[in-house]
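DM from R.C. (forwarded with permission)

"hey, sorry to bug you on a friday — could you get me a structure for this? deadline for the figure draft is monday and I only need the backbone to look sensible"
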Amino acid sequence: MPIPIYQVDAFTAKPFAGNPAAVCILEAPADEKWMQNVAREMNLSETAFICPEADGFRLRWFTPAVEVDLCGHATLATAHILWETGRLLADEEAHFFTRSGLLKAKRRDDFIELDFPEKAEESTEALPGISEALGTGFRYVCKNKFDYLVEIEEEDILRNLKPDFQKLGQITARGIIATSRAKTRPYDFISRFFAPRVGINEDPVTGSAHCFLGPYWAKRLGKKEFLAYQASARGGEIRVRVAGERVFLGGKAVTVFSGTLLVEN
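My reply, with the result:
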């Protein structure tokens, strides 16, 4: 049976910006090797696979190289497709059962808000080689269970980073988040995300990284709500709201194309 698949640009209101994700709609769970092959074929930072379960949907995410535990932009893209195709009514909340527990999404006016777990900072020793790999010094470094976060002194330095991806890939972590306070208004903070270890040199817009960035900047800026910008070549905006142990991520999405997989699992 043909399998519907979509490509969606997430965390953007216009096509060819934000972060593209593939969304594959399944009627039943699929073979893991087949899903990895589809993700490699799509060759995007993430491909989401979704199938219905009682009270919601099972959701999994794959890069071209590995399955990942948490992905924001592909979750946003998936929720967008569920509403756009009528699989969920406009006022229904999306419930996703994932490797990171229950995730939720709801429509708020003209954007989608994701309900994600906080991934707060943990103290860490100095990270050898990070300055050389990023090509700059830094103010502070910390980590969580997925990533390292490196605070850069100035926005202009962050935007102009030209990392050595081979050296970054030697760091044992899903990715490296580089961030700075924003001087560009109306943004509160700026970031970039590098993940060569999982097959993505630079991710265009990384929702899950903001589960770390939100609590990090809440402590330093003394506020709980932010407008953030991820300064990749494509770029994207994320509304971030920190509430206890949850982080709410808001953004828009645009469907770029729809198609049919002719190779069954």
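R.C.: lifesaver. Residues 89 and 122 are 40 Å apart (CA to CA).
me: no worries. Helices lie at 32-42, 72-84, 130-134, 155-159, 165-168, 210-221.
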